[in-house]
Amino acid sequence: MSNATLDRVVKEIADEMIERKDRGEVATYIPELAGVDVNSFGLVVVDSSGHIAAGGDADTSFSIQSISKVFTFTLALGMIGDKLWQRVGREPSGSPFNSIVQLERERGIPRNPFINAGAIAVTDAILSGHQPRETLGEILRFMQFLSGDSSIKIDESVAASEQRTGFRNIALGNYMKSFGVIENPVELTLGVYFHQCAIAMSCRQLAMAGRFLAHSGRNPSTGFLVVPPERARRINAVMLTCGHYDGSGEFAYRVGLPGKSGVGGGILAIAPGKASIAVWSPGLDANGNSRLGRDALETLSKRMGWSIFGA
Amino acid sequence: MSNATLDRVVKEIADEMIERKDRGEVATYIPELAGVDVNSFGLVVVDSSGHIAAGGDADTSFSIQSISKVFTFTLALGMIGDKLWQRVGREPSGSPFNSIVQLERERGIPRNPFINAGAIAVTDAILSGHQPRETLGEILRFMQFLSGDSSIKIDESVAASEQRTGFRNIALGNYMKSFGVIENPVELTLGVYFHQCAIAMSCRQLAMAGRFLAHSGRNPSTGFLVVPPERARRINAVMLTCGHYDGSGEFAYRVGLPGKSGVGGGILAIAPGKASIAVWSPGLDANGNSRLGRDALETLSKRMGWSIFGA
Amino acid sequence: MSNATLDRVVKEIADEMIERKDRGEVATYIPELAGVDVNSFGLVVVDSSGHIAAGGDADTSFSIQSISKVFTFTLALGMIGDKLWQRVGREPSGSPFNSIVQLERERGIPRNPFINAGAIAVTDAILSGHQPRETLGEILRFMQFLSGDSSIKIDESVAASEQRTGFRNIALGNYMKSFGVIENPVELTLGVYFHQCAIAMSCRQLAMAGRFLAHSGRNPSTGFLVVPPERARRINAVMLTCGHYDGSGEFAYRVGLPGKSGVGGGILAIAPGKASIAVWSPGLDANGNSRLGRDALETLSKRMGWSIFGA
Amino acid sequence: MSNATLDRVVKEIADEMIERKDRGEVATYIPELAGVDVNSFGLVVVDSSGHIAAGGDADTSFSIQSISKVFTFTLALGMIGDKLWQRVGREPSGSPFNSIVQLERERGIPRNPFINAGAIAVTDAILSGHQPRETLGEILRFMQFLSGDSSIKIDESVAASEQRTGFRNIALGNYMKSFGVIENPVELTLGVYFHQCAIAMSCRQLAMAGRFLAHSGRNPSTGFLVVPPERARRINAVMLTCGHYDGSGEFAYRVGLPGKSGVGGGILAIAPGKASIAVWSPGLDANGNSRLGRDALETLSKRMGWSIFGA
């Protein structure tokens, strides 16, 4: 595969997606998301040689929302290792992203780190008695370090809106607290959670941040080992089985790559050994995943032959 | 990778597994399964060159049980294509293999083809007005064709026991029938279902049968295209997300390969582009999956570097 | 209260109900029920003196369906007493009449004798190794004895239709069998169940049959003690909390009398110490209970001051 | 029935209960409840003539907890009438008092006013834009008015403990808020809720407060009409079907009276037309209802012939 092929495929996809009319619905639960242009589309692929293929709105910042869960999950594994599994599982949930039913049946232990309850439990593990401000600083610096871009910021107005309207997440946090799964004061844990979801990044920054997952835990440009190879594989495995809520099976079936979506319309996808990919289109499908983002990744995976399930 | 490496790794694993004491519990719901020696262990790997590495009880027949679901699913996709998705989903279930709860919530449509309800719906699609005997003949000939071994048989005493005691599967079948998801008389569909689960195969036969999934739908020895490449990828994707019931996330996390387990203790696993693998150890974990089978595959995947989630 | 008052109130209600247009939907799942005239309405009240007030189609036979559950429950308590509670509970279900979800959570024990699963378990207790024909004869003779009318019969065409289409009940039976809650062969138990539901009675016959529940277990005309007083109270209690599926709270709230509905549009209601009441109107509400039947009972209870919850 | 009979029966029961060893477990989730003497027992019956029969610790105050739900429900019906039913149902829940599962299925509408979620929704309806302090004052004055005792108080230490540890109730409140069922700020509604549960009353005060429910809405001493007769009946109906969480069927079956329990070990029961009854014994059964309280009421109902389900 030459750089030229990748560049061409990315350009084709970006061109095709601009034409699409069936773009899904932009999330409307907070004004900051509702105001985003549904016609936005960005796609960036960084391959193992460091070559970057970019299409569409590659440098426009969007709210990464649940994509942040990949990175806090990575941080938590680094901080407390397998003890993390005492408070969160790693099985697909078979239910929507914000379901509380499963928590009642399984005594407050969320099914996996990528549904809201699970990510709140992971955030609580990272917070672990520190000041929210310190923890948030650490998360943000981790994103900046991974992307090689210190300009990445939290969108405070998004965070404030989430905090004002996030009743279901407050419910999830308190519910887990009632089982002792949350250790810090719920409002502190949720404060960090709402802010990490409000990190704003472009496709370029996000694709750069995901490189360690595509390359056995190592940043291929700097050679720095972010996580051991086995951990990178395992994070990819959890992304594959749980990264798209109740649409995870569909994503695996169509795209064939580990990925994590956010309600802001972004998806981070990993072609192990080959590339880190970020796509953004704010229109969502019924499961809360980016519709065109998914389609773009399906096409990319097919044209590049990148499916992990075979040539 | 040389043949010698693979041979050595398979031998090491077989030797290690013979020593293991914590072998799980053999399924006891029918006498034919309960009587199997818990100390049995077999492992066979067939790589892309056709080289076969075998360890332990590689040629002992066992009841493949739910592993048959991979092959009836393949047959059904061949017969009716994407229309199959009108009566079965492709999302992980988040519940045990024989749960009926999800069916009530989703109006009789099983979540995926690899839970019991889903496999019954798939079998019903294959039966489709034919005589059970014909359909069973077709399933059996498909297995013989894929393995290149016409000696494969149905164990009639297992089938008879299943039919006598399979009240929960009868419940699932009738429940789906009440929603119109089952089209044939329930007892005919279940007759075929119970018999396909009672197919007896050795690890060698099973690994041979799985080759098309490892090689883009093609039998690498004969060159015959069993399914188009995209379909092979998609079957692997469903195996990865749904192949181990409510332990699918765990299997992906530890082993990193698409796989399908059976309550007889067998697992078929696929390393795309590399190998088809069958393992058998009749002791089960709490999710009904072979405990040592899983461990053996985890070790194999690690030592051979075969995880689909990265090196 | 004079006979004249009761006669007048019953006549008023019958007249009012004839005018009603919003009659609900007749059950359509079998042709025999679908063919019933939605404009039918009958009401019969038998008070403690034996006085009978009848209005509308008081002598037209209809399919009593789930109202039969009251009588098989009574029979089962007579045969095995409190041992019955080992296989069925006595709590409201919080779910529709034919839900299977609760059975999975509670390991095959139905919540109460008045949902389908519970009534099947009760029927199984009565069958208890006998021939279905004998058991059915016993149920039928019990109904004839209670009503003082030996002409009561089973409608065989209704029974045959139920048996042909009752996939969900077959599912419930087999599901309970998988937990060991059903002891007889499922098809025998269901055979009895489908036939008991197909008993055809008029409002007059039904009101007569219910007298023992209104009068401390005693038939006030013959003086015969059908059940001890405490048992009559307890049957009434279960009717109050569970007699209308997921509309039981609503029925208690509006009518204030123990009652049991059937999908044929009948309701048996009991005013303890005062009267046995049967009403019939085949149009059903969303919970599967007779809409006008419920309204008629609400009016009757109010005008006669019969609510058990106070004057 | 003479006063002497009632006095004797109440005395007998109090004597019998003092001997009982199997008293259940005192609630331990807050220190104030955990510290209560498990051997406490009180019983007070006020009949229609105003005669009071008292046994045991009739004048010891205890935390009425969920019994308060009867009175806030009464207040809410008075304030907004049938509009209350837009935000709470009146069906038994079929689940524990603090279950959140049902709320997800039914989009935030609690099943009835007597489970925690329902009572929080009712409290929110009463609060309705007022200051929590005013609303609490109103609730407290209502209790004082009904009991004819202005010394009734809120136990502030109980309220403070509930507020500190009530994570599950906070979860319920926020969860309903996410569906728009709660209109006031959640913390205000919960503040009122936690305080109303912390009202401390004796059996004597509680039995006095319940008189209007036994006498068609009227206080028989003062002649004051608290609620119209139909409303009193309806409140009794909801108590009968929903007053003991997932033990409501059992209570109806055994006791045969409308009743409402609290986790402090109190039960208010109503014999319509006959008496208002309060019992207290702090040991609880598995459903969170007073074990000896229930037994005492069962005996009282039997010996006095007060069951609403027949003589």
CATH architecture of the largest domain in chain A: 3-Layer(aba) Sandwich
Mean residue pLDDT of chain A? 95
Radius of gyration of chain A: 18 Å
Broad shape of chain A:
globular
CATH superfamily of the largest domain in chain A: DD-peptidase/beta-lactamase superfamily
Oligomer: homotetramer
| Biggest interface and residues each | A-B, 42 and 42 residues
Portion of residues within helices of chain A: 40-55%
Taking the alpha carbons of the first and last residues of chain A, their distance comes to 14 Å
Question: In what range is the share of β-strand residues of chain A?
Answer: 5-15%
Task: Provide the number of structural domains of chain A.
Answer: 2
Biggest pleated-sheet summary of chain A: 5 strands, antiparallel
Order of helices and strands of chain A: HEHEEEHHHHEHHHEHHHHEEEEH
Low-confidence stretches of chain A: none
Count every beta strand of chain A, where a strand is a DSSP E run of 2 or more residues: 10
CATH topology of the largest domain in chain A: Beta-lactamase
Query: What CATH first level of the largest domain in chain A would be assigned?
Result: Alpha Beta
